[in-house]
Amino acid sequence: MAALVTLRSPATARNISIDERSKKISIQELNCHIVPYIKIIAAAQAAFHLNPSNGRGKERMTRSDRSEMNEAPHEYASPACMLHEVDPAYSGISPSFATNADVFAWRKTQRQRLIDERKALPVADREDYTRAIANHLDRIVTNVAGKHVSLFWPFLGEPDLRGWMACLTARGAICLLPVVVAKATPLLFRSWKMGERLERGVWNIPVPADGKEAAPDIVIAPLVGFDAGCFRLGYGGGFFDRTLASLGRKPLAIGVGFESQKIDTIHPLAHDIPMDVVVTQTAVRYR
Pfam families, per this entry (predicted)? Predict the structure, then answer.
């Protein structure tokens, strides 16, 4: 379907008109001083050229790899929307930042602050909050017999849901743990239940040694931070976003964390995929 798009120079542009079969849509007051539309187009075009490898290489991450990964995500599988080229409201770029690099730098600071606060929680409080989260999950994740449910091994003060995982197994669920294969690739998911052998994975997080690979029906992911739109701030590697974008059948995505990890916005970018549900000890938020 043909469309005529007229863009004027950044210094003078005050509107963009799209004339399609005599239907006119006017996007008023493009703010060229904050995010010039040339940068919006460049960001969108760059997003289209990102093409993460789908290979399942077996190389281990080096210390420099991990340090680099913590600085900012490198490649993402989520495509940009063509509207990014027209209206900054759809660009995925927060108007308070000029570039993605600014967002990454801001996220790095917030990430460290939120992790430090989470680790500082008293053990008794963390256990109480985790029990409350598990109770909420029981009301959301109901008919699990025969379903593949991905959870996580607790890391850096995350909620410890291993006890709840054992309850899921008793109810007939097939529990999975995520496995990092290599940077810039989607996660694998391997089955595991209490008593089965584990081995050390990236960051020394235990992963199933012999579990069968499977695609999850439900993904329960830890949060470093989250906002009212159910966007998740993770550890900066982009693994969950890349994985959710690569799965042929989209699972129910549930983020879990503590209420203190809520922030006003993560300043979502084009590659960020929101959770369907965010669960804390005090609230359940649906997207």
Answer: 5-FTHF_cyc-lig
